[in-house]
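Suppose a classmate hands you a notebook page containing two proteins, each written out with its sequence and a corresponding row of structure tokens. How would you begin to make sense of it? This section walks through that situation. The first entry is reproduced here exactly as it would appear on such a page.
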Amino acid sequence: MLNSICRFWFRTNFSSTGVVSPFYGKLCPLQLKLFSSAARPSWSFAKRDSFSANYLMKTWGLSREKAFSAAKHLNIESTEKPDSVIAFLKNHGFTTEQIRNMVRRFPYIIVSDPEKTLFPKIEFFLSLGISDIEVAKIFMAAPGIFKRSLEKHIIPSYSYIKSLFDSNGLNIVSMKKLARILCCDLQHHLLPNVEVLREAGVPDKKVIFLVGYQPRVFMVDEKRFRKTVEELKKMGFSPSVWRFVLALQVRRSMSKSMWEKKVGSVAMRERASLLHVGVRG
């Protein structure tokens, strides 16, 4: 096979008169590249990705699509590194099922450095007086916390949330519920969106309720969040009452089209009710 290709290349690049073909300059580098060692890394990368994907599928039950997608960003050449991560997590109170749950949602955890990346974050939550079991629940609820910087993100976010509760004489309700908001961008999401609610006239206790029980509400950029708040105000929801808080939760939990469909349905029921009352009257 190789000899045939070489003969074809020679005939292509040399005419019968012995003059070099004009295609020589274009084809020669290509031919050389095909047979050079420079082409080998792509094969090794494919082999590595295949190993990573198979490992994720067989060991942790990821779908083929998700496994190969994650494999592009992982560098698993053997099970040695993942095994050390698993052993570390189990030693810190994580069950096999919890680890499986985290890996399925956040595959990158199995190539993390246990001592440099995982331990400092676990240690921080333990220092707050939270038990091993509860710490495991926090990370299972939001394994993406492991990816966040402890000094630049987790500690500042926690300090800000705690100050919100402390200033109103309240205790943090549940760190498990707050886990997702610790993955939220403090400077671009939580801080500005809390201020949007305050500017709109939402009382602090209602803001804290949202932070403590519905942190997902804040996980959007300020522009979109402000637009949602203004939309609810135009619909007649007063920011000072609980109905506004509930409406904000519902609005943030669904797409615009679904929201409009729901609002239209409610409006139709109200009109039908008024017509019914009018007929009876």
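The notebook's second entry, a different protein, reads as follows.
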Amino acid sequence: KQVNQSNLPTIIPQLVQNNMVHARGILACAIIQAQDESPDNTKVYAALISIINPKFPQISQLICKRVISLYRESFMADKRKKTFIMIKFLTHLINERMLHEKIAFQIIAVLLHNVSSDSVKLAIEFLNQCGQKLSQVNPQELDSHFSTLNNLLHGPLITERTKDMIRVLFTVRRNQFEEYPAIKSDEFKYDEQYEVNENEYKELRKTFLGENNDDEDKSSSNSLQNDNDQSNIPAAVIDLSSSGSSVADKEN
């Protein structure tokens, strides 16, 4: 069943009724294929992965690794349409904090190293989609890549149409990427009905995730630590300049 913004809340309970860990390969393929067929819903699929991640990090890790691998394969094979689709998926996974921003900067660096109009267009798409997030976490490195793009405006390496796209990107940046907002970090807000809402949440969690009462106290006391440990999958190191297909995880 295709996921969209309206049916996402009903899809999650259907998924957890199955053995998601045992069938993680099938689930990963299904999500990636669905995104490929409906790239306009990429934001929803990335959100679905971020919802799955706290309870099933091995599933989200598998999906992220496969998306990186598919991007690399399509890029090396010069499959332009497929590469753009995978770029879109990667940027939303970065916005959802499923992938480290180092992934983004590495990909952009490769795209702007051996310059062509197509590679610059890919870099522009990447920066459009997750530029706001990158400006928050590492503005200095982002400035460096924009400096490279600015230099390309004065050279013969790319077409005039691509130069126009760079100028539009600079306008988007001046507007702080407001058309492509990043996922905001959680903010604490005082809840006057905290105890009531917390009890309702615990009951929902037990029903939704099948947790036992014996595990509840331990889970609650460690919830903040678990969120911190699992909210950001380690950055994957990918070498797009070689012909190999291996993807290795790098611990932060």
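A careful reader of the second entry would note: DSSP finds twelve helices and two strands in the chain.
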